[in-house]
């Protein structure tokens, strides 16, 4: 279950520094930088674009390269040089003059790429020509366009459209390479090379782990989070009890303040870097964000465990044994919830932010006159 911590941390690190749809923008040396919850670049950019947030869009031409990261990423403009995009949903409808490197869950490439294309995700749709070579790695890949150079294809299932063509060599990586059917119009048999999935670099991350591997990871995560929660509660019982009370009394406020606190820390990195001299403090903000993220998840899981054991009739944890039971119960429930598709991710974020919010109120509430009841 430890792997569930990483999406939470990186999601937090990608969170905007501002809570509303307002965005922070800055230009220097011809390059443009923008961050916020919803950010749209609407003015033509002579240099490079760096944009991050929850929902990011580029709707004006970019002379240089585009660097885009967010939950929803949309490129609806032409890029003169290279494209680097990462997000859960990435939609490319603008032409790329150089290479395109795209990663995420659902990727759609609907405009020509003049250089090489590298796309790694879960669902990939290519419907525009690629002038160079292409690397497509995903669970489901749909190709309905011409690739002038070589293609390295690693996929569980592949669908060939009428316009699909490979001008160079088609390298197929699969658990059963011989089972992957390739129409003659896509590539002739003499231009197809078949490889076992193990030969594809990064294939370990693409293959779905077996049941026992997932169970091992889940149990390991429960043990680690449970031990952290137990140690925290045993070493500072009064402090943890206060955190628990704050989170249970006003969970919505804790969730909101956890999001805001972590977003502020991450946003401070951008602004410190902009000042030049303040860049030396960026590592401090990064460490603080990571500590708040990990601490928030552990506290949130412990709060969940105390609530669950209370419902079961055990009452408030008064001994180290009681606290250990609550910590492990919360870690197990949080890990089980994370396995639920889609809704599990949202529930995990809620647990994470509630715990972080309790920490924020405890540490900074008095200074900002936040009611701590």
Automatic annotation (TrEMBL):
Signal peptide residue numbers: 1-19
Span of domain DUF8173: 218-360
Keyword annotations: Membrane, Signal, Transmembrane, Transmembrane helix
Keyword Heme: no
Regions that span the bilayer: 217-235, 255-280, 286-308, 320-339, 345-365
Pfam family, one: DUF8173
Protein name: DUF8173 domain-containing protein
């Amino acid at each position: 279950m430890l792997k569930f911590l990483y999406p939470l941390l990186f999601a937090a690190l990608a969170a905007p520094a501002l809570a509303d749809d307002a965005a922070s923008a800055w230009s220097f040396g011809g390059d443009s930088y923008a961050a916020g919850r919803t950010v749209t670049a609407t003015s033509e950019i002579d240099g490079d674009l760096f944009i991050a947030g929850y929902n990011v869009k580029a709707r004006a031409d970019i002379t240089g390269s585009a660097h885009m990261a967010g939950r929803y990423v949309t490129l609806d403009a032409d890029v003169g040089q290279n494209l680097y995009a990462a997000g859960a949903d990435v939609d490319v409808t603008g032409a790329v003059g150089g290479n395109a490197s795209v990663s995420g869950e659902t990727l759609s490439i609907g405009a020509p790429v003049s250089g090489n294309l590298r796309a790694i995700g879960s669902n990939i749709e290519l419907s525009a020509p690629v002038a160079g070579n292409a690397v497509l790695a995903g669970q489901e890949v749909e190709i309905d366009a011409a690739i002038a150079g070589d293609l390295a294809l690693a996929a569980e299932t592949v669908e060939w459209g009428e316009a699909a063509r490979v001008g160079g060599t088609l390298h197929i990586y699969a658990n059963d390479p011989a089972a992957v059917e390739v129409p003659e119009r896509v590539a002739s048999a003499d231009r197809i090379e078949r490889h076992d999935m193990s030969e594809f670099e990064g294939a370990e991350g693409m293959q779905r782990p077996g049941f026992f591997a997932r169970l091992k990871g889940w149990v390991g995560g429960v043990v680690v989070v449970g031990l952290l929660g137990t140690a925290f509660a045993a070493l500072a019982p009064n402090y943890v009890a206060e955190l628990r009370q704050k989170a249970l009394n006003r969970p919505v406020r804790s969730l909101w303040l956890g999001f805001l606190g972590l977003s502020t820390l991450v946003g401070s990195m951008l602004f410190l870097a902009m000042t030049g001299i303040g860049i030396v403090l960026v590592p401090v903000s990064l460490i603080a964000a990571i500590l708040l993220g990990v601490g928030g998840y552990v506290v949130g899981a412990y709060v969940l465990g105390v609530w669950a054991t209370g419902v079961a009739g055990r009452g408030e944890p008064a001994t180290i044994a009681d606290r250990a039971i609550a910590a492990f119960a919360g870690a197990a429930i949080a890990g089980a919830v994370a396995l639920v598709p889609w809704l599990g991710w949202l529930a995990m974020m809620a647990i994470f932010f509630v715990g972080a919010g309790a920490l924020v109120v405890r540490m900074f509430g008095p200074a900002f006159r936040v009611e701590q009841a």
